[in-house]
User: Fold Flavodoxin from Hominiventricola aquisgranensis.
Amino acid sequence: MSNILIAYFSRAGENYFGGEIRPVSIGNTKICAELLKESLDADAFEIEMKAPYSDNYRECVAQAREDLQKNHLPELKTMPESIADYDVVILGYPNYCSTIPMPVATFLDAYDFSGKKILPFCTNEGSGMGVSEADIKKYAPGADVEEGLSVNGSKARESKKLLEDWVKKLLG
Assistant:
């Protein structure tokens, strides 16, 4: 087992790409997580909802916004038994409503991240990290949340060097 966990939430279906909505079979965040996994000695865990958001982009946005407004932590399909052996969690997610998707909050809320380093990366089409880093700190008190990386989702497949350089900068 590695001491690094790549935990990520991603969504296929309709996604927003530079002004248009189009379907994708693999979400942008998953693409980035897989690129990181190729480069690192790390374990990976996909954060998946038991009742996923709609594949329809507009419906998904409405569902995600409602969960955020109600501070609803949706149930996940599975959870790691423990994260105790991990010193570093690389946390990937798309920018939903300028922050982390609530399934990511469910994941963070389930564990004690005290003394762990969290490296957040966020896929988006220009909205950046939003307030996600501050929100991660709320759901993972005691964690050392490092400066996040904003990845342009439509360039996810070309982001391997960007991701590798970011991790190298933060972990040495």
In short: The domain at 4-171 is CATH 3.40.50.360 (Rossmann fold). The radius of gyration is 15 Å.
